[in-house]
């Protein structure tokens, strides 16, 4: 059976490539009509990821980089949800990866020069496979906001980068999740490139008191919908599922 072609970007839902208030989009956006390139069979069908590729601590950012007996600094949170298709059916055995700044708003990256300190017990990245019901789960710290050189006083809201792999290596979707109630969401030039408030809402993880662990960890729920009318907004939908 010939694999189906990937879904194309819904340009009424996604932001335009050129959005001058988000200054780096001016240099990065194309000036000519886009060309749709077909994927090869090897890109569509492989390689695959399996349970042998995942360490038991990969989804626990509170432990996977910390020294023995120590923990990262910051608000301890759980981020969990399901990976679903357009008909709300679970998507099992999907590799979900996350990366983020620490609680002070600084990434563990040599080019991050923000004055917030690096947390020696926080690596800032993790991965897991969705289970048979499409469920995934991470423990981490809530990332801090940080300034960026877009405007004189622009700040990124707290966010976690999320990557989802499909059945082949070319089937990768990338997005960012934000946190319910963050006032910086409405002020962020990147977020505000999204024309539909409903799309922004679908990028916002909701407080989940039912999954919160008393005296331990606050939980947020973030379901990832791959396509359809309720799909999560992805940064690279053109190349994804």
Automatic annotation (TrEMBL):
Superkingdom of the organism of origin: Bacteria
Pfam families, per the entry: Dioxygenase_C, PCDO_beta_N
Domain (Protocatechuate 3,4-dioxygenase beta subunit N-terminal) ranges: 7-40
Q: Which residues cross the membrane?
A: none
Name a single GO biological process.
3,4-dihydroxybenzoate catabolic process
InterPro entries tied to this protein:
Intradiol_dOase_C, Intradiol_dOase_core, Intradiol_RC_Dioxygenase, PCDO_beta_N, Protocat_dOase_b
| Residues annotated as domain Intradiol ring-cleavage dioxygenases | 44-228
Region Disordered: start-end pairs: 1-25
Which SUPFAM superfamilies does the record match to this protein?
Answer: Aromatic compound dioxygenase (SSF49482)
One example GO MF annotation: ferric iron binding
Q: Which UniProt keywords apply?
A: Dioxygenase, Oxidoreductase
Task: Return the similarity comment.
Answer: Belongs to the intradiol ring-cleavage dioxygenase family.
Q: What is this protein called?
A: Protocatechuate 3,4-dioxygenase beta subunit
């Amino acid at each position: 059976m010939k694999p189906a072609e990937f879904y194309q970007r819904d340009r009424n839902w996604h932001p335009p490539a050129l959005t001058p208030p988000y200054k780096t989009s001016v240099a990065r956006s194309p000036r000519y009509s886009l060309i749709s390139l077909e994927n090869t069979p090897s890109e569509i069908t492989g390689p695959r990821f399996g349970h042998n590729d995942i360490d038991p601590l990969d989804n626990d950012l509170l432990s996977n980089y910390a020294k023995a007996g120590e923990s990262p600094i910051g608000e301890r949170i759980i981020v969990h949800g399901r990976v679903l298709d357009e008909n709300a059916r679970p998507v099992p055995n999907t590799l979900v990866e996350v990366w983020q700044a620490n609680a002070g708003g600084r990434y563990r990256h040599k080019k991050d020069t923000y004055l917030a300190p690096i947390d020696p017990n926080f690596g800032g990245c993790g991965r897991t496979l969705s289970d048979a019901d499409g469920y995934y789960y991470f423990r981490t710290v809530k990332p801090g906001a940080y300034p960026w050189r877009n405007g004189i006083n622009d700040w990124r809201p707290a966010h976690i980068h999320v990557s989802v792999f499909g059945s082949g290596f070319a089937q990768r979707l990338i997005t960012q999740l934000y946190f319910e109630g963050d006032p910086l969401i409405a002020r962020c030039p990147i977020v505000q490139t999204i024309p539909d408030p409903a799309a922004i809402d679908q990028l916002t993880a909701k407080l989940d008191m039912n999954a919160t662990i008393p005296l331990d960890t606050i939980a947020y729920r973030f379901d990832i919908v791959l396509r359809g009318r309720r799909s999560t907004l992805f940064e690279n939908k053109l190349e994804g599922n």
